[in-house]
Amino acid sequence: MKALVYQGPGQKDWIEKERPVIAKPTDVIVRMTKTTICGTDLHILKGDVPAVTPGRTLGHEGVGVVAEVGSAVRNFKEGDAVLISCVTSCGSCPNCKRQLYAHCSDGGWILGHKIDGTQAEYVRIPHADNSLYPIPAGADEEALVMLSDIMPTGLEIGVQAGHVKPGDTIAIIGAGPVGMSVLLTSQFYSPGRIVMIDMDPARLELAVQFGATDTIQVGAEDPVARIMELTENLGVDVAIEAVGVPATFDICQKIVSAGGNIANVGVHGKPVELHIEELWIKNINIAMGLVCTNTTPMLLKTLQSGKVDPGKLVTHRFKLDEIMDAYEVFGNAAREKAMKVILAKIVQARRLPAQAESGLRSCTHYEKPPPKGGFLLSAECITPPAICIPLNAKCLPLSALWSMSSGICIALFASCILRSGKCRKGNGICITLPAPRPLEAA
Ligand SMILES: NC(=O)c1ccc[n+]([C@@H]2O[C@H](COP(=O)([O-])OP(=O)(O)OC[C@H]3O[C@@H](n4cnc5c(N)ncnc54)[C@H](O)[C@@H]3O)[C@@H](O)[C@H]2O)c1
Ligand SMILES: [Zn+2]
Ligand SMILES: [Zn+2]
């Protein structure tokens, strides 16, 4: 198989490598269908993460299909479509027991770090029952890739650790994929004002499209003075650092209001100066941490219900074997106006498997209109698990489904749901339908 391998500082290669094999009964081998590149991979390539040794396959994000299962795996079987968490967890060590999965004694962030990662055709996932999530049928796979790392990171370490509340004024420093994930997930809590701070005008413009109410361009404006002006000298309720340099942590210390929170998400390579002499008297909380991914199940639900669409963070798409070009683009994100890149292993589109075709049945109604962008289940489609799809649907925006009043049940097999060029934005699905048959009247 092919894999993107770290060959020492500044060096990487897309090379032929042994396909991983089951090493422990709790392992699963996943055939990757989509992966991405993280800012952390760029840090590794600079030589900033010495635990990564030459020969290591990079990558800790992605989705795929189970190719092989260890004898002790209970939740997954061959052919299952799965989301890979960037954090591996055994589920039974003392830290896993208190949901501190990042500090699992036999896991944590190991993918593309201490063991071979996801930028390959196949990856071995230890403790698969706890480290993989089944992909809901019809889910947007590109959007799901954002749930491996950046979305839980933004939510857990930025929004939840910063205690964002309804009506709050919050500032996010750093409009990269992680800062954007903070922006998207903070809106679950309805902050009154979201100020995005970055030096890149293109990213700030995108932030406005994603819900930022104000932007501050570092370099052109003084972020501290501007925040004080916006907040009538009160400062912000929550200041979220999503860069990882002393200068941006310092901005947080200067803009946080009395009783406020600083949530540090950025990974720092250098010490920062903590102004405890100014902060103590202001009743400030400071939080920081490594993502635990315990919000992944909740994020999966919000994605399915259309409450959040992280697929819009994807700006560039490549085939998996074009990964060297993808690194070039992602490594020059400002020049290329890149946010997240998707690398997809293109698999030949297949007709519905025979078992799926035989699973087609007519159903007469939808139970209720689905939430925007979601699916719905007709009561008649429950066994086998199925979704209701309008007749003659070829490629349909999910949001249009609810406006139909009748359809057919399609048994859910990940392999029979294809995405076509038309469905690229993640708001539609493509289903290969056999000739429609007449429906009974509703
Ligand atoms: N805590 C965790 O568990 C965790 C998980 C994943 C990533 N991270 C960290 O989150 C941080 C952000 O990740 P990312 O992938 O979005 O990074 P990124 O490099 O893509 O984005 C950082 C953004 O910050 C902006 N920026 C840089 N210097 C700035 C300054 N002085 N003032 C204002 N803006 C500035 C850049 O223009 C860029 O848009 C990184 O440090 C990453 O390592 C932390
Ligand atoms: Zn990452
Ligand atoms: Zn554990």
UniProtKB/TrEMBL annotation:
Coiled coil: none annotated. Its EC number is 1.-.-.-. CDD domains: FDH_like_ADH2. SUPFAM superfamilies: GroES-like (SSF50129), NAD(P)-binding Rossmann-fold domains (SSF51735). It is an enzyme of class 1 (oxidoreductase). Residues 24-136 form the Alcohol dehydrogenase-like N-terminal domain. Its cofactor is Zn(2+). The keyword Coiled coil does not apply. The keyword Zinc applies. Keywords: Metal-binding, Oxidoreductase, Zinc. GO terms for molecular function: oxidoreductase activity; zinc ion binding. Residues 193-302 form the Alcohol dehydrogenase-like C-terminal domain. Belongs to the zinc-containing alcohol dehydrogenase family. This is Putative zinc-type alcohol dehydrogenase-like protein YjmD. It comes from Pseudogemmobacter humi. The lineage of its organism: Bacteria, Pseudomonadati, Pseudomonadota, Alphaproteobacteria, Rhodobacterales. The gene is yjmD.
